[in-house]
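Q: Please design a sequence for this.
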């Protein structure tokens, strides 16, 4: 369930994209220094959004510098890091590890099994840093797994679990913004879960795999699923607007109002192609 929370590059100004890449590269660098070089392969855009959102809200002091790396050996890249970068790196490791385990259990994907084994030491370290977060994330994922195994037809039951998981991910600390952050994480989590299921409707139907939308007793499952996705994206945008975000707000708006919508539209196009085959 990675890769749904990203930018629409074509609609960003150069300066905005430069900053976005700086946070992304900062997370990559943090994964290397705090965990290991191989942990950089778990890097994803979803955690960059987490850094952007929390950095905009709390405005911690940023460390900025330029550095070359394996991916960009010829030109130095902007690196932006702060205290939230390290938090996001730990969450990134946890979610990547659990995602690989889930892929192995569901699909017997040996590549995912190998990656999970390679990340065991990094996962243990992230657990030591954020033990309560790890405990809650595992509990929510276990609940989802149980509901899916029981072929739950309750859309809210399964999507709410991932919503509650993302609540904990986005809740950096308990303060006056806790309620808003929890709601933001909740609707973001539901959207991610629904979009992941929406993308896989045809494939899951063919493979006889669990998909909450394929269990619906409605005339047009595709249209119903898209309406539900748009509703949750609307709820998410409402909660984002309640937060006093100024720093990098244009990038955050690009992700919410354009980047995530692009992902949905691409999924919709692919679904229509599958239906018309």
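A: Design:
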């Amino acid at each position: 369930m990675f890769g749904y929370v990203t930018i629409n590059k074509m609609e960003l100004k150069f300066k905005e994209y430069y900053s976005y890449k700086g946070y992304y590269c900062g997370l990559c660098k943090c994964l290397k220094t705090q965990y290991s070089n191989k942990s950089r392969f778990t890097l994803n855009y979803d955690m960059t959004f987490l850094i952007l959102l929390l950095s905009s809200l709390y405005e911690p002091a940023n460390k900025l510098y330029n550095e070359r790396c394996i991916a960009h050996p010829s030109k130095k890249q902007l690196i932006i890091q702060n205290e939230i970068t390290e938090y996001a790196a730990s969450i990134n490791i946890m979610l990547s590890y659990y995602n690989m385990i889930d892929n192995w259990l569901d699909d017997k994907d040996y590549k995912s099994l190998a990656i999970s084994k390679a990340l065991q030491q990094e996962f243990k370290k992230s657990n030591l840093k954020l033990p309560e977060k790890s405990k809650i994330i595992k509990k929510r994922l276990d609940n989802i797994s149980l509901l899916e195994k029981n072929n739950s037809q309750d859309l809210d039951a399964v999507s709410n679990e991932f919503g509650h998981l993302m609540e904990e991910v986005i809740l950096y600390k308990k303060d006056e913004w806790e309620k808003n952050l929890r709601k933001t994480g909740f609707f973001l989590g539901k959207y991610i879960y629904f979009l992941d299921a929406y993308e896989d409707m045809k494939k899951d139907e063919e493979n006889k795999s669990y998909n909450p939308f394929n269990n619906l007793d409605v005339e047009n499952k595709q249209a119903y699923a898209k309406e539900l996705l748009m509703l949750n994206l609307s709820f998410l945008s409402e909660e984002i607007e309640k937060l006093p975000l100024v720093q990098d707000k244009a990038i955050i708006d690009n992700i919410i109002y354009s980047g995530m919508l692009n992902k949905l539209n691409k999924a919709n196009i692919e679904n229509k192609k599958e239906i018309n085959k």
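Q: Thanks. Anything notable?
A: The domain at 9-276 is CATH 1.10.600.10 (Farnesyl Diphosphate Synthase). The first strand starts at residue 63 and ends at 67.
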